[in-house]
Automatic annotation (TrEMBL):
Protein name stated in the entry: Uncharacterized protein
Keywords: Apoptosis, Disulfide bond, Glycoprotein, Membrane, Repeat, Signal, Transmembrane, Transmembrane helix
Residue ranges crossing the lipid bilayer per the database entry: 191-215
Domain of life, per lineage: Eukaryota
GO biological process annotation, one example: apoptotic process
Amino acid sequence: MLRNQQDPAIMVAGNYNLKCNKNLETCPAGHEMRECVEGRHCVQCEDTSYQPNSNKYGDKCRLRKVCTQRFMKYQHHGSTVRDADCMCFEGYHFENEDQRACVPNRECDKGYGQGPYGVCENCLAKNMYSDVKDRLQACKPLKNCEKVSRCTLKKSNGTFDNVCGPVMDDIVNCDNLTTEKPKVEESSNTAIIVGCVSVLLFVGVIVALCYYFCFHRPRSRSHKKRAPTQEELDAVVSQVIENAKKDEKYCKQALNTSCTIIENNIGRQIWSLPQELFRKHFQAGKYEVIVEKYKGDQPKAAVNGYFREWRSWKEDKAETITDLFMCLKTCNRIDIVYMIATKLNEIDSLDVPEKLSDKEDSLQKQKPSYMGSLLYSVFPCLGKKRRYPSEEKASEKPETMNRLLDTESGAELQHQTQQPGLPPLAAATEAADAQQTLSTAVIIPPHAPTLESTNEEPYSASLQSIYAILELTPS
């Protein structure tokens, strides 16, 4: 056999050899054409590239996708003739066909399922259904009752599966299918028995209630605790700092709790937070480096990163807690300090001031409910063993109530008026503010407005004591 003068390069073990060929026009998939001394030859693509088609000179091998981003993994690593395929973790999806980043799924209502690129699809339009509201489930196929010789008793609306009836020999007349209800035979004897049992049950319940309330009623304590006042939260903040100085384990627990609450509530102060955290850092512009490092993360993840860097520098010490509270004060988020104090107040190991515990014990009793008042009016014996706070206050003399109020607030006013370093007029003003704070019992709710969003004087006055705590504590 005569050899062709335009013989292409010979394929050896899946690769084209390096023999030059002046007349070489194309290379197969998985290769690219390169120049050599006497012409051109085909070279196989590298492990990180691919070429899906036969190609001419100038068509380079293409780079494969890299599936190492967050929440992403390889579905197929690819080959020299095929690109790699990426897929997102469960609960995440690609924003588009580029497969560059995985983002969290939206929450789809019942009747809608997860579709490509995070779109909630109408399941019923696809003859499918979805019976849950979540971020994971896709539409599921509906049962085909007729296929298994059953009639469809209840057709799906997209939020539940079709309901099939029993197996039938002929399903042609499914439209006329009716469910027969059993006939109820009423009997006079049955009615009498039911009536007697109902009367006995009613009498038994009344007797049990009388016995319980008159002879065996325990002294109930309210299962709900009142919200602590601003004065008590200030005491808790001061106690947190003192306990952190004494117990290293408690200090670390308080820092973990504080960082978690700040991550969930810092909001738009996410940019001023790192600036205040790293303001005293020995490296100039440290906060800019930290912000640049975590700018691509989600807000909570970025704040978590700020705190990791900050705690590795400051260490878990009592001074670190003081600096954190001062940082929140500078960011005008003193409300978060009160959230932290409220949360730490619930920790069993916290040494809560005795004054706070006594006040909570004094408020355990509640007013009787409507049903309780009705029972007391029907059965007088139910009201002899308990007197509620409203009744006790009504029975006290006005002079006694005024004396108690003067005793409770006098000591606090004396302490406020004797603060060193204040002129008499300023001390009197501070005492008046303290009196107003104690009388109104300002409570900072979990979602109190930030200092940026309110200009009300009572709220600003209620923060003076916590400012004093933070400023007098050594940093």
